[in-house]
Amino acid sequence: MKKILLTISVLVLAAAVLGAQSRTSYFVRNSTQSHYLNPAFVPDQGYIGVPLLNGFDIQLATNYGPTTFLFPLSNGKTGLFLNSEVSPELFLSGLKNDSYTDFSFGYNLVDVGWFTRKDSFWTLSLGLDVNMDSSIPLELFRFLKCGMTTDPQSYSIQNLAIGAQAYASLALGYSRGLDEFVKGLRVGGKVKFLASMADMQMNVDRLDLNLSSQSWAVSSLGTMRLLGGGLSPAFDDNGYISGVNFDPSSLGVGGFGLAFDLGAEYTISQGTPVDGLRFSVSVTDLGFITYSQNKSRIFTADGTVRFEGVEHLGGEGDINSQLEGIADELMNLASFTEDKVDKAQNGTLAATLHAGVDYSFLDDKMNVGLLYSARFGRFRTENELTIAWNYAPVRSFDIALSYSLLKTHSTIGWLITFVPKKGIGIFLGSDYTPLNYTALNIEGIKLPVPAKEVMLDVNFGLTISLGGKNRRY
Amino acid sequence: MRLYFRILYTVTAVAAAVAALCSCSSEIALGEDDFDAGITVGGEAFAMPLGSTDTVSIGDFLELSEGDVIGIDENGNYYIQFLQNFNEKVSLSDFTEQLTVEGLDHEISPVSTILPDAGDIPETGLGGNLIMIDLGLDEQFAYEFGFEEARGHGLVSISRVELADTYLQPVVELVCGSPLPESLEMEVQVVVPDRYVFEESAMLEGNTVTFSGTVDRSGHVYFEPLTLTAIEFEVPEDGSEQPFVFSDEFTVRNFHLYFDPQDLESLSGEELAAYMTVSVRGGSADGSLVPEAFLGRVDVDVDPVNESVTLEGIPDMFKAEDVVLDFYNPYITAELNTNSGVPVNINADLVPVFAEGEGDALHLELETPVSDDPGESAGAFYWISTERPAGLESGYTWIEADMRNFIKRIPDAVDIRIVSNTDPGEDAYIVCEGEYSVDGEFVFNLPFSFGESLRVPVRDTLTGMPVLLSDLVRSANVTISGELTSTIPLGIKLTAYFLDSGMRRLEIPDVEQMVNSAGAGSAPAVTELELTVPKTDIQEDIYALVFQFELLAGEVPGEPLSSDAYIRANLSLEVPGGITLDINDINNESNY
After folding, report:
1. Is residue B202 part of a domain?
2. B46 vs A321: CB contact, 8 Å cut-off?
3. Which one of A13, A241, B3, B97 has the largest count of C-beta atoms within 10 Å of its C-beta?
4. What pTM, to 2 d.p., does this model score?
5. Total of domains in chain B
């Protein structure tokens, strides 16, 4: 029974992890989703997303995995990285300089694309996006694992960041071939009207810890912004931020914004041996969201706090209370305090650059491509290099394989697309399919999970092809 | 169909390729029994500052409070001070009775004469033309009295007795067959002993007192009495015992009658008899001579004083037999006040009393001052110490005494036993009805320090230890380190041990450390503190941590203790190897 439940859970998760922005689909010529990556791209025919199954998009990406923090122990059990049997060298060697966690959730209410006149393709989509990401520097884990190896001991933790964002977008896209000007050239663009609910961003630029038996000193430099509604800070008795709470009463539209996607492709078709070689470039989510002054709260942490113990230790009061006081004081060492906001605040989007080149052959039934993408996130820029291979034995069917570099290691992507000229089409695939798994044995049930990176990304969608003119055929 | 197979073939090939690339390299067991929740945090050299303790002054050790026997002087030095008052009545009222003697009523032998004719008697020339008739009286008699009984009551010698309402007065009655004329006057002389002191009067000339008066028709004569103020006595200068039986000679002579010659005519030939009594009488009902005061020497025992002052408010730890305090400059001040004109010798024994018996007594001999007026007090101040103080306060008389031997440790009480007597070698003016007393106060001032055998344990129990501490002790050696600064000129032995919730001692070994004593002048001494609690698999959680401070003799015994002396610790917690915890316990926040 347990196995059945777990299996169902995995399938549900897989079904829920629906995505429309698969890099692997970038070079799939008949993809109904590639215009999300490059607005110049168009499918072979118009389509309408199937209502309700039109698009869920959940992505979870980390550059660490279970084996980063869980280790087999000599007693046959599994222990945390903080277990004394796990050496600091072993633990830290499994970490990157920054351990990031990206989680995104997207839900498309409307997704439709259609051709008008010759080679003009329009898209309209309405969706909701929730993004959460964090970046934790290696030094923080070094501090947690190693603690004080000497007295005194210093740590400098830099660029610790946590962010979350939720907004709705209404996008109208247009793509047009410009063969009359340059044969093989096509451009496209989208305009997105954004309505944001909340945007939280915390950056700790620097957190210096100087620990000794005489004093613990913390120097912090950081900022935190709470924009929009739905989130409210929690303060302790001393006026320090003790956390961020979800506040349903303040839910609503917190800010408005505008964003653009721009793209172009150029396919060589000059009767040369390299005919079919296509170059493409795009930039997406180029925009901003503005939050009014009264919807903005800013907090800063900038200063040094030194803790030298409790005065009058063992005097009045219970020792437990005094120690709790110590803990509270330590927790406040690096806390944020609120600043006055005197103007509206702008939130940024994570713009993404795609630059690709692919070459089709075998009568356009097979192509290979190389895609470089750079996502300019709020905390870091993610670079990715993807090698893709596509094969379309028939017009309506396409299968693609990809191999991604830079951002991850040993990750392949795959995509199967079936888009008939008319009728219901389907696509299923994943950009990140880790090759190195470990088995999580939970009460006898073994679940394969990526060993060193958690990359959960499955693209799935149902579309209804509208027929019409196929530009390639 | 061809399309179908082409797709199937392609999908199968891709799936096989992907499956071939994937691998499952390990297995992570996360079942309930497969997961080890132990974690170790903090690092190999984990240390954190705990803070600084309150300044613990020596007073905290001594648990002093307002009004205690132990006090702090203006220089901040500790001392024990207690006092005892006493009052002695000097009863001299017995002497009033013992020195009271019967008055004198001596009847002179009657004398008579046949009144002559006036022409046979020449005029006297005393005024007018009075004529005198000498009755020819010349008689001596003795007045005997004594104070022998007073000797038995302590009278050593007496040189003067002052009398109140005491008079010398003759009483005369003339008897004649015919009425006596109004002009008849009379005069008689009484020669008194030299020792008798009379009030100054015209009647008195040398030792002779001349009484004169007018005879009334009944033959009585009223003489103005002469006030006898005192009787003086000779005290042998050779020191021999003074006789207290006295016989004083009085002489009555020159008994004269003065007549107007014309009145005498009618009486001529009549027999006139004179009856006279010479009296020396006091103011009492029976005429006894009652002394008002006297000057002399007495040897009178004063009622003994037995007082005991209990020393309360001193911590019991100071009274233990093995606690030897160094009273580095003890002294006693004594204040005596008296209205007595008699010098009183006070012999006081100050006896320390312990549970096991009495200690060595301190014997003091003090002399009271003398007051000239019983209505006013005279005071004397004594400073009793082993050595004369450099700056002895004015008005004080220093008395050397072995104070250090007297007060070696704090007694439960001090008995004060006083036996006093008047000084028989000094003359004293004693008012017989006077109320004499001697008020005294002994103030014991005992600045102290601790001697070589000192051991004073003081415990401070810190309750409400977090469960975390128990887990720490179970998982690793825990070290409380830091610095302990002491200006107490004593050694301190610091011991820490642990109790469970039932206040029972846990099996964790005691941890001990010696704390250096402060140097001369209370220069701060810093001791590196390192109390290591060994890893112990205790069954019960730690509820309380007990710090026991034992004050021990310092390197320089005898250093005065000052209220400013303190100890203060800056502490840090060290857990070499880090803190091993169970995350399941951490999740249970109530434990931490």
Report:
1. yes
2. no
3. A241
4. 0.61
5. 3
